[in-house]
C-alpha cells in the first residue's frame, strides 16, 4: 500500500462522557501496516458540553507523549447540533504522520465554572499505508 493510496480506517468511540471521567484507550494499525496519516479527529455532540474554563479534548499520541499527533479541543456546544473536528480547531493535528502501530487516545474532561458535562461520539480517521 502506498502513501498515495492509503487504507482509510475510521475509529469510532461511542458515547464518551467528557463530563465524568473521559476515556483512555488505544487503537492499533491494521495488520501489516506500520505508517499512517491522521486525516481527521472529530466529535459528534450528543449532550451539551459545559466546559467554559477548560475545553474537553481528544488527544492522540504515544505512551510517552499524550498529544504527539493530535489534540482536538472541544468547547461549550449545544447537544445534537454540533460536530467539532479539525475545521473548528485548525491546529488540532500536531503531526499528521504516524510512525507507531499503536496509538494512545485520551478523551479528557473539560473544566466548567459549574458542573462539567458533555457526551459525544469521537471519530478518528487515519489513512494507513
Strand content: over 45%
Task: Tally the structural domains.
Answer: 1
Runs in which pLDDT lies below 50 for 5 or more consecutive residues are none
Q: What's the Cα radius of gyration? A: 14 Å
- Might you state the CATH topology name? Jelly Rolls
Number of strands: 9
Shape: elongated
Class based on secondary structure composition and strand pairing? mainly beta
**Number of helix segments?**
0
**Order of helices and strands, N to C?**
EEEEEEEEE
Brief overview:
The chain is mainly beta. It contains no helices and nine strands.
Description:
A hairpin with an 8-residue loop joins strand 4 and strand 5 (70-74). The N and C termini lie close together (5 Å). 0% of the residues lie in helices and 51% in strands. The chain is mainly beta and 129 residues long. The strands form two sheets. Strands 1, 3, 6, 7 and 9 form a five-stranded antiparallel beta sheet that branches. Strands 2-8-4-5 form a four-stranded antiparallel beta sheet, with no helix packed on it. It has no helices and nine strands. The chain is elongated and about 50 Å long. It has one domain: Jelly Rolls (Sandwich), CATH 2.60.120.
From the structure above, extract its key features.
Jelly Rolls, 4-stranded antiparallel beta sheet, 129 residues, 5-stranded antiparallel beta sheet, mainly beta, elongated, single chain
Chain-wise SSE layout:
Layout: E1 7-17, E2 23-28, E3 36-50, E4 56-61, E5 70-74, E6 83-84, E7 97-98, E8 102-108, E9 117-128
Antiparallel strand pairs: 1-9, 2-8, 3-6, 3-7, 3-9, 4-5, 4-8
